[in-house]
Every structure is written in structure tokens, then in C-alpha cells.
């Protein structure tokens, strides 16, 4: 079994409003998390990122528009987080995608206004979210949100 997790913050500015793609998970009511999940051998981090993004959103990640922004090691487990700035396909604010995962956990994926996402973000992802926002501000001058 692989010993890593990969999470993705897809961020987008639409008409001056900043959004982030987030997942609500039935077993964690009231909180939102980034797209992501654990690696499966023989994957590497990027393969895990792309597979998880596809499984949870039904979209295919553009291979040139993601940036690793955070990595932490907890015992033997490694958690990797990426900022994603481009995907193929589209999702608009208010549009939700419902997915039932292999473990039968119901996910709802949608573009959240970044302020709301920030309030509901699952606590373990906060350090990575801060770094993703820093990188997004560096890449896109329209993005001004600071958690």
C-alpha cells in the first residue's frame, strides 16, 4: 500500500470573485476538504493527484497547470498538496457534482466562494491552503484573498 496523500486546491477568479473547488463528505458534516486521496501503487504523486481529481470531479486535470505547494511527513505517511490553476472541462459556481466513492461515502463537489471555503475548511488542510493562496496571489494579480 502506498503511504502518501495528495490534495488539490483548484482556484479560479470569475468576474473578480475568487473560488476554490471543494468537497463535502458525508462523514464530516459541516466541513469541506480539497480534492484528494491516498496513493495506490505503482503511482507517483502526480499520478495520484490526476486520478483523485478525475475520480472526485469527473474532470481531467491539465498536466501543465498545477504546482506543488506543501508537503508534510507524519510518521511514515507523506501529505502532498497542489495548487491547480487549470482543468479541462468546466464547472461554474453553484454547479454541484455528486459522486459516490468506492467506500460508498457520498461526495458533493462544487466551486465555493473562497471566504466560505476558508470558514469550513477541514483543519488538517489549513497550512496547505495558506500556501496555495500565497502561490495563487503570485500567479494571478486578480487573486487577493489572504486566509
CATH class call: Alpha Beta
Structural class: alpha+beta
Low-confidence stretches: none
Q: State the CATH architecture.
A: Alpha-Beta Complex
Share of residues in strands: 35-45%
Alpha carbon gap, first and last residue: 34 Å
General form? globular
Summarize model confidence as the mean pLDDT.
87
Order of helices and strands: EEEEHEEEEHH
CATH topology: Nucleoside Triphosphate Pyrophosphohydrolase
CATH homologous superfamily classification: Nucleoside Triphosphate Pyrophosphohydrolase
**Integer count of domains:** 1
Please, how many helices? 3
Can you give a write-up of this model?
The mean pLDDT is 87. This protein is α+β, with helices and mostly antiparallel strands and 147 residues long. β2 (17-25) and β3 (32-33) form a beta hairpin. The radius of gyration is 14 Å and the shape is globular. Strands 1, 2, 3, 4, 5, 6, 7 and 8 form an eight-stranded mixed beta sheet that branches. The chain contains three helices and eight strands. Helix content is 23%, strand content 38%. It has a single domain (4-139), classed as Alpha-Beta Complex (Nucleoside Triphosphate Pyrophosphohydrolase).
Descriptive key words:
8 strands; alpha+beta; 3 helices; eight-stranded mixed sheet; Nucleoside Triphosphate Pyrophosphohydrolase
Write the layout of secondary structure elements.
Blueprint: E1 4-14, E2 17-25, E3 32-33, E4 35-38, H1 45-57, E5 66-74, E6 77-84, E7 96-100, E8 106-113, H2 114-120, H3 126-139
Parallel strand pairs: 1-6
Antiparallel strand pairs: 1-2, 1-4, 2-3, 2-8, 5-6, 7-8
Amino acid at each position: 500500500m502506498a503511504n502518501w496523500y495528495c490534495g488539490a486546491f483548484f482556484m479560479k477568479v470569475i468576474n473578480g470573485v475568487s473560488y476554490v473547488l471543494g468537497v463535502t463528505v458525508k462523514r464530516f458534516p459541516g466541513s469541506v476538504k480539497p480534492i484528494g486521496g491516498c496513493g495506490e501503487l505503482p503511482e507517483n504523486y502526480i499520478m495520484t493527484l490526476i486520478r483523485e481529481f478525475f475520480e472526485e470531479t469527473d474532470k481531467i486535470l491539465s498536466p501543465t497547470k498545477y504546482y506543488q505547494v506543501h508537503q508534510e511527513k507524519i510518521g511514515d505517511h507523506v501529505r502532498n498538496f497542489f495548487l491547480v490553476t487549470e482543468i479541462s472541462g468546466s464547472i461554474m459556481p453553484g454547479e454541484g457534482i455528486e459522486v459516490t466513492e468506492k467506500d460508498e461515502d457520498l461526495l458533493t463537489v462544487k466551486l465555493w466562494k473562497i471566504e466560505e471555503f476558508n470558514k469550513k475548511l477541514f483543519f488538517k488542510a489549513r497550512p496547505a491552503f495558506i500556501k496555495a493562496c500565497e502561490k495563487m496571489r503570485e500567479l494571478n494579480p486578480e487573486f487577493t484573498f489572504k486566509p
